[in-house]
Design goal:
The chain has eight helices and eleven strands. With 252 residues, it is α/β, with parallel strands linked by helices. It has one domain: TIM Barrel (Alpha-Beta Barrel), CATH 3.20.20. Helix 1 packs across helix 2. The radius of gyration is 17 Å and the shape is globular. It starts with a strand and ends in an 8-residue tail after the last strand. InterPro entries: PHP_domain, Pol/His_phosphatase_N, Pol/histidinol_Pase-like. One of its GO terms (molecular function) is 5'-3' RNA exonuclease activity. Pfam families: PHP_C (PF13263).
Length: 252
C-alpha cells in the first residue's frame, strides 16, 4: 500500500455554475498537474461528462462517475460510482425528479456536454441546479443500492452542507465519510460539529474553474486508486486510512 491523492469533487461544463473552460481534456490536464491519482466529476444532478473525462484520462488519473445531488431538503450529497451503468441509471431517475425549469444561460450559465475531443455533444435545456423531489435518506439509499458511495458534501458550508442546513445528523444510518469545505480547518470542523468525531473526513476542491482543481484533496492509504479501495480506506480496513489535505484560503 501507499498514499494516493484523490479529489472527488470537480465540476465540469455541465454545471451551470462552472466555467466553460472545464472541458474533459482541461480537467484531465489540471488533475495531472496537481498530481491527482483519483478524481470524480460531480456535476449538479448529472453524470454525463464523467464518461468523457474518463475517456480523456485513459486511466491517468483514474476517473469515477459522479454527481452532486441536491436533495429535497436542499442538502448536497456526492454520489460516486465505479461503473457508468449504475451512475446513468440514477441520473435518469434524478432527471425525472427535477422541476421543469428551463436553464436561462444569461442567468444561470450554460449546461454543456463536451466530449473528450472538446466537441459539444449537446446542451441540457432543463436547469440542473435545483433540488430533486427526493429526500436525503432516499437519495442515499438509491446511491448505495446501486453500489455507489454517498458522501455528504461540504457539510459545514452554506448553502448545501448537511450540518450547516439541518444542524445535525438525522437519526438513522448515515454514510461513514463526509466532506468538509476546502477552506475549513479540520480541527475547527470537529470542534463546531462533534458529530464528525470518529467519522472519515474527506476534502475535495469543489472546483468550478481549472485552477481550482487540486487546491484541496484527500490522501488515501490503500492498494490502488479505486472506489473499492476508497471504501476500505474510509473503514480503516487492514491498516488503510484517509487524511484530508490542509485547508486552502477561501476565495472571496
Amino acid at each position: 500500500m501507499r498514499w494516493w491523492r484523490a479529489d472527488l469533487h470537480i465540476h465540469s461544463t455541465l454545471s451551470p455554475c462552472a466555467s466553460l473552460e472545464m472541458s474533459p481534456a482541461r480537467i484531465v490536464a489540471e488533475a495531472r498537474r496537481a498530481r491527482l491519482d483519483l478524481i470524480a466529476v460531480c456535476d449538479h444532478n448529472a453524470a454525463e461528462n464523467g464518461r468523457y473525462v474518463r475517456r480523456a484520462a485513459g486511466g491517468e488519473p483514474v476517473v469515477l462517475l459522479g454527481m452532486e445531488i441536491q436533495t429535497a431538503e436542499e442538502v448536497e450529497v456526492l454520489a460516486v460510482f465505479a461503473d457508468e451503468e449504475h451512475a446513468f441509471q440514477l441520473e435518469q431517475e434524478l432527471q425525472q425528479s427535477l422541476p421543469d425549469i428551463p436553464c436561462d444561460p444569461d442567468l444561470f450559465g450554460d449546461q454543456v456536454v463536451v466530449d473528450e475531443d472538446g466537441e459539444i455533444v449537446r446542451r441540457v435545456e432543463r436547469l440542473l441546479l435545483t433540488p430533486v423531489a427526493l429526500s436525503l435518506s432516499e437519495v442515499v439509499r438509491r446511491v448505495e443500492d446501486r453500489g455507489g458511495m454517498a458522501v455528504p458534501a461540504h457539510v459545514d458550508r452554506l448553502p448545501g452542507g448537511l450540518l450547516a442546513v439541518l444542524g445535525l445528523l438525522p437519526d438513522g444510518s448515515w454514510p461513514e465519510a463526509v466532506e468538509i469545505a476546502p477552506w475549513t480547518r479540520l480541527a475547527d470542523a470537529v470542534r463546531a460539529w462533534p458529530e464528525l468525531q470518529g467519522r472519515a473526513i474527506l476534502r475535495g476542491s469543489d472546483a468550478h474553474y481549472p485552477t481550482e482543481i487540486g487546491r484541496a484533496w484527500t490522501e488515501l492509504l490503500c492498494a490502488e486508486p479505486s472506489l473499492a479501495e476508497l471504501r476500505r480506506a474510509v473503514q480503516n480496513a487492514g491498516g488503510r486510512a484517509v487524511r484530508p489535505s490542509q485547508e486552502t484560503k477561501e476565495e472571496c
